[in-house]
Design goal:
This protein is elongated. The longest helix has 11 residues. 45% of the residues lie in helices and 19% in strands. A hairpin with a 2-residue loop joins strand 2 and strand 3. The protein contains four helices and three strands, in the order βααββαα.
């Protein structure tokens, strides 16, 4: 985990927040001592209806072609 000083957080808060929004977790330090953590929040999960609707729009799977692709990449022992 990367660190950012309290001074940098105060002076460059926008840049620090952009790093967090990009997925980076940061430890905030004051006088070199860790005092806080900044981390991105988890995105809320999708509701059941949305997941079912997305599943219904998926194209059908050609099982023969899928097996052929698996055999070509992994081998026939799997």
């Amino acid at each position: 985990m990367s660190t950012v000083s309290l001074r940098d957080l105060r002076n460059q808060g926008g840049k620090v927040l952009e790093r967090v929004l990009a997925g980076e977790s940061l430890t905030v330090t004051r006088a070199g001592i860790p005092v806080a953590e900044l981390r991105p929040l988890r995105r809320p999960g999708l509701d059941r209806e949305t997941l079912i609707e997305r599943w219904r729009r998926l194209p059908p799977v050609d099982l023969v072609a899928f097996r052929r692709d698996v055999d070509a990449v992994v081998g026939t022992s799997v």
